[in-house]
Amino acid sequence: MLRRLYDWIMALAESPKALWALAGVSFAESSFFPIPPDPMLVPMVLANRKRAFVFAGVCTLASVLGGIAGYYIGYALEGLGKAILAFYGYRGAMDAFQAMFAEWGLWIILVKGMTPIPYKVITIASGMAGFDLKVFIAASIATRGARFFLVAGLLYYFGAPVRAFIERRLTLVTTLFVVALIGGFVALRYLF
Q1: Taking CA 119 as the corner, what is the angle to CA 110 and CA 4, rounded to the nearest 5 degrees?
Q2: Residue 15 DSSP label
Q3: Which residues have C-beta within 8 Å of that of residue 116, sequence separation ≥ 6?
Q4: What is residue 118's predicted lDDT score, i.e. its pLDDT?
């Protein structure tokens, strides 16, 4: 099933309606869809590097809007939210996750929004936990934007050779960025 979805997304990346498809996949991935937009973003940027940052902007906007939809699913449609989380194997972890959210909510969104960890889990859990919606949106814009603009920027400046590196080491690249981001927040906290 996942292979067919992946092949479908790759075919969409080459179509004239690729930008709309990219927005749709970015939106859906943030609330329920299993495949991230990266498999479309990478070939689209490599095919038209001049539009790299437009593609990243579309990914960011659609992902944040999809994140708000995921938040709503968790907040107002809890039964559907629980079913989606169960589908992804997080059924029993919700109570522990809500407790973590009460203490570390912003940091969870910041870290998980940048990594390949399914963002839909964070969006739905944020709604279920009643996490502050404004903070959720701001953190989503920061992390999703950073992730997509990082990928688009690397591809824009370095072209095709970076594609193989990103595909092999996406977790490493995003982890290093998150470490730098958290380090910056910690440094600012202790310096001021």
Answers
A1: 150
A2: S
A3: 36, 170, 171, 174
A4: 72
Higher confidence at residue 28 or residue 182?
28
The domain limits of the chain are 2-191
**CA torsion 7→174→142→163, rounded to 10°?**
-50
Distances (CA, A) of 101 to 105, 107, 110, 122, 136: 4, 9, 12, 10, 11
Q: What DSSP assignment string belongs to 100-137?
A: HHHHHHHHHHHHHHHSSS-HHHHHHHHHHHT--HHHHH
Sequence-distant (≥ 6) Cβ neighbours of residue 146 within 8 angstroms: 114, 177, 181
Which of 101, 38, 30 is CA-nearest to residue 67?
30
Our CA dihedral for 22, 24, 25, 31, rounded to 10 degrees, sits at 150
Query: For a pLDDT cut of 70, what percent of the chain falls above it?
Result: 61
Task: Give 53's pLDDT tier (boundaries 50, 70, 90).
Answer: very high
For 143, the token pair is: 């992390």
Confidence of residue 177 (pLDDT cuts 50, 70, 90): low
Cα 65 from Cα 28, distance rounded (Å): 9
Tell me how far apart the alpha carbons of residues 121 and 97 are, in angstroms, rounded to a whole number.
10
Cβ proximity of 150 and 113 under 8 Å: no
